[in-house]
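Appendix B, Record 12. Input sequence as logged:
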Amino acid sequence: MDPLEIAAGLEAHGITDRTAARFRHRDVFSLAEELYARSPHEEVSAAAPALVPAGPAAFRRFGYALLPAALACAAAAAGQTWAAAAAVVAIAAALVWPGRAAGGRFPYVAHLLAAAVAGWAVYRHGTALAVGLALAVAPGHLAAAAFAAGARARLDGSRALEDFADRARPLLLGAVALFGGAAAVAAQLAGTPLPVAVPLALVFFLTRLLLRHGAHRAPVGAALALALVPVPAAAPAAAAGLLVHAVLALSRASAHARP
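Logged structural output:
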């Protein structure tokens, strides 16, 4: 553990710079440095490598991410009536699987709302939308994994919480933009309108990121409830709200600290 890990833990427990000032420190990181100096710890013999080769677990997770698209495309190509339902179930499962254990009551309300949003959208717009959203699951998995790895590397290289936040925000926006392009390609391949498919895909991608990093579920649930409103502007508004929440929540070091 290093001082920034301690600062992330203090931040996660609600310790602010104002609280640190009561202990005669300029900010949370300064307090964390003193705690690190006062705590017994072992010297690290060698720095961790910047790039860790992907192991069997990483390939297995990517294989699971490919299943929704494979299932939806195969069912749609075979003309099965249950293709849309299978895609909705696969999309919901892709959101549930990477989530952290949530504290408090009703931790899975956000997952149920996401499944309801997917089902309602597919009911209104048809099987092509289900296939397009399912095709976007795999690039969403890759973009989320790249963001998590990049944020982790920036956390290890930062020396202040503000420094990390300044590095994490462009990384998040880049991951969202990358996934938005992939979702547009998936929508084109499925033959569904971009203004319908891309905002919904962004809603699910941002939901996945926020659940994966243990963010508060109340704003996520509110955005998903908004996406259920049957008006064209609902999904873009929900995606915009989730993006604002993600910028605030995922630029905090505590969202990326090792468990």
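Confidence is low (pLDDT under 50) at residues 44-53.
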